[in-house]
Write a structure and sequence with these properties.
By secondary structure, the chain is α/β, with parallel strands linked by helices. The chain folds into two domains: about 280 residues, Aldehyde Dehydrogenase, Chain A, domain 1 (3-Layer(aba) Sandwich); about 190 residues, Aldehyde Dehydrogenase, Chain A, domain 2, CATH 3.40.309.10. The chain has 15 helices and 22 strands. The strands form six sheets. The protein has a seven-stranded mixed β-sheet, with helices on both faces. A six-stranded mixed β-sheet has the order 9-8-7-10-11-21, with helices on both faces. Strands 5-6-22 form a three-stranded antiparallel β-sheet, with no helix packed on it. The structure holds nicotinamide-adenine-dinucleotide. Nicotinamide-adenine-dinucleotide binds next to helix 8 and helix 9.
């Protein structure tokens, strides 16, 4: 049920496509509904882009590119900095909007506004620091100049689970580098991106530099953009399955790509762990975003000597969680994004239980409106269970045990994914060995959350290509040129 404040907020979010500096309806006036997953209610109708709308957005990004690339880096940086300040002022509105369309508890939405906005600040700082190099070649016959150039118009596709952060993590570095973009948010959560882009406009965004399309036909609208010879870069965050389809499309024009894909994070608790810290870290790594994070701990591998204590303490805490609409005071578990997500979690738990797992709490869909699944803890999860192989994307914490370090490493690495690993140990040398032995792009060592705008976020194996954030993040939107000139003294 939306109250007056929510109605006002929703009414203020643009409902059009943003193309060439104008909010406008989709071709034929088509619209798509946006739902509140906590109630199932439609909260707003927004423009539903056609293939022609997608092309118009790319046209606008291409037209704006030369001027934006030539805009002094300092000006681009200042646009981002003004945006950062405005987002900070509007944090409460953005957080509420995210909770309405995505379902996460308000406290977590506030956290995402801070986190997402850090990418805007970070890349406002990076923008003016893009540099090349100049030097003699080893033979001293010439001078080598290495320069960096914006890659060109970019297409950005984002998922529904972090509606603000996934957009800022792509838009901010692209703009900092001098690229123009078309962004296509997930149709399930389009409103936050529109609200953010409206803030960019208030901060002085020139027409065509950022264009927004929302569509119920992601594949049909995206393919012509991805295969258009004018596009220079595709940055995608989403499932590995869709990432693979897009990589095949991108291969046609040997398009630069960044791929932030699925995960299957192990959370390892060694017998020498501080169990208090491990429990706190586990709850964060698992239940943040109602388990719907690519970095969510997916498999809890706990040494047999501490498994009982760890399980008991986790179960105590999980039983105290409050379920509800994310706007309600004290709620820690909101709805999943939709009923399909609930059905997937149900099937994974059913399979695990059929193979011998024990349910300590939860274990079923909740009988209330909206897409709710109970916070669940399973132990004795057997090897071969689907829940250990697939991304759960829900509030289920499956525990399996191991006997020694080699077994823990073997189990942890036994996946095609390699986004993040979590390790709890008080033994420094063991922690260092884990850094070298675990096959993942990121690792939390006695930490349950790793994300930071200053860090290179990204995965190994089927978890993706490229890095977002950190010193590395800007490189995804730059291309290198090497020039040789004669030795001026020869
Ligand atoms: P998804 O792959 O279904 O959708 C992601 C985006 O791709 C959406 O905007 C969707 O509309 C679009 N899309 C779907 N099919 C498409 C097609 N054929 N052509 C073009 N676009 C298409 O993923 P999701 O369900 O929105 O998000 C969950 C997934 O995202 C999980 O696997 C999660 O691990 C992953 N994820 C990864 C990261 C990361 O940084 N590695 C971050 C967040 C989410």
């Amino acid at each position: 049920m939306t109250d007056e404040r929510e109605k006002q907020l929703l009414a203020g979010v643009p409902d059009g496509l943003f193309i060439g500096g104008q909010w406008r309806p989709a071709e034929g006036g088509r619209t798509l509904p946006v739902h509140d997953p906590a109630t199932g209610e439609v909260v707003k109708e927004i423009a539903d882009a056609s293939v022609a709308d997608g092309k118009a957005a790319l046209d606008a990004a291409c037209e704006a590119f030369d001027d934006w690339a030539a805009t002094p880096a300092r000006e681009r940086a200042e646009l981002l900095r003004r945006t950062f300040e405005l987002v900070r002022e509007r944090a409460e509105d953005l957080a509420l909007l995210m909770t309405i369309e995505m379902g996460k508890p308000l406290a977590e939405s506030r956290g995402e506004v801070t986190y997402g906005n850090e990418f805007v600040r970070w890349f406002s700082e990076v923008a003016a620091h893009v540099q090349g190099r100049y030097g003699a070649n080893p033979e001293n016959t010439g001078r080598m100049i290495v320069s960096q150039h914006p890659v060109g118009p970019c297409y950005l596709i984002t998922p529904w689970n972090f509606p603000l952060a996934m957009a800022t993590r792509k838009i901010a570095p692209a703009l900092a580098a001098g690229c123009t973009v078309v962004i296509k948010p997930a149709a399930l959560t389009p409103l936050t991106t529109s609200a953010f882009v409206q803030i960019l406009v208030e901060a002085g965004l020139p027409p065509g530099v950022v264009n927004v399309i929302n569509t119920s036909d992601s594949g049909g609208v995206s393919e012509p953009i991805i295969t258009d010879p004018r596009l220079r870069k595709l940055s995608f965050t989403g499932s590995t399955q869709v990432g693979q389809i897009l990589l095949r499309q991108a291969s046609e024009r040997v398009l630069r790509t960044s791929m932030e894909l699925g995960g299957n994070a192990p959370f390892i608790v060694f017998e020498d762990a501080d169990v208090d810290k491990a429990v706190e870290g586990a709850l964060l790594a698992k239940f943040r975003n109602i388990g719907q994070a690519c970095t969510a701990a997916n498999r809890f591998l706990v040494h047999a000597d501490v498994a009982e204590e760890f399980t008991r303490r986790i179960v105590e805490r999980v039983k105290s969680f409050k379920v509800g609409r994310g706007t309600e005071e004290g709620v820690t578990i909101g709805p999943l994004i939709d009923d399909r997500a609930v059905a997937k979690v149900e099937a994974l738990v059913k399979d695990a239980v059929a193979r011998g797992a024990k349910v300590h709490t939860g274990g079923q869909r909740l009988d209330r409106p909206g897409s709710f699944y109970a916070a669940t803890v399973l132990s004795d999860v057997q090897p071969g269970s689907d829940i250990l192989r697939q991304e759960i994307f829900g509030p289920v914490l499956p525990i399996a045990t191991f006997g020694d370090e080699d077994e823990a490493v073997r189990l942890a690495n036994d996946t095609d994914f390699g986004l993040v690993s979590y390790v709890y140990t008080e033994n420094l040398a063991r922690g260092q060995r884990m850094i070298e032995r675990l096959q993942s792009g990121m690792m939390g060592l006695n930490m349950g959350v790793v994300s930071n705008a200053a860090a290179p976020f990204g995965g190994w194996k089927l978890s993706g290509l490229g890095r977002e954030g950190g010193a590395e993040g800007i490189n995804e939107y730059l291309q290198t040129k090497y020039t040789l000139t004669p030795n001026p003294f020869a």
